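Before a colleague's protein record goes any further, I have to sign it off. What it holds is a sequence and that sequence's fold in token form. My question to you is simply how this chain folds and whether the tokens agree. Thanks in advance; the entry in question is below:
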Amino acid sequence: MSGKQIFQKALLALSIANLLLLSGCGGSSKPPVQTPPVQTFVFVNINPAPPFSIRPGGEVPVGAIVTNGSSGVGVEWSCLPADVCGTFSPGSTSSGAPTTYTAPSSPPPGSYVTIVASYLSDSTRNASVNTVISGQASNHTLTGQYSLFLTSPTGSRGTTSLGGSIILDGNGNVEGGVVDLISPGVLDLEDPILPTSANPPPRSAASTPRPT
């Protein structure tokens, strides 16, 4: 066999090998792209919420709604400040089910309580709301500025309203204020509320001098 024939056979073998290699590469397929799962977050919302204020020892219903949580997994109830904030019955509920919150027998330090609903499977998923435990009103607690608003039907004339504000000093005294009457057909500009010092208490009947 001549050198030319050997070269031709070697070239043919190399060409066949290349074809086989290309055929093998073309037949391979890449693995499918894996789409990462969509992450969902659990949300807790207190509903119904407690009223703004609760009397000591009072009972009110509260509840929590869990969104994107596992089926049948609800919340656990707690409150702050611990040990003096009241109790819950039951202590855990399913989503949307109410529990009964019982306020403490006396107001805690600061007079307000934080009610917390925590998702049972992950306590970092929680919701909270504040409520005031209102104690017995006294001169000491009545200090600062207060607003007042009264309405009453007045027959064919419609409804009459009385609005205003008053400032108390915490010692049972009025420091001042203003009041206004709102009624159809009646114009009443703001009237001042005089301080207690400008209104001395009336003398008793026993001290009232009588003509002889």
Observations:
- DSSP finds one helix and 14 strands in the chain.
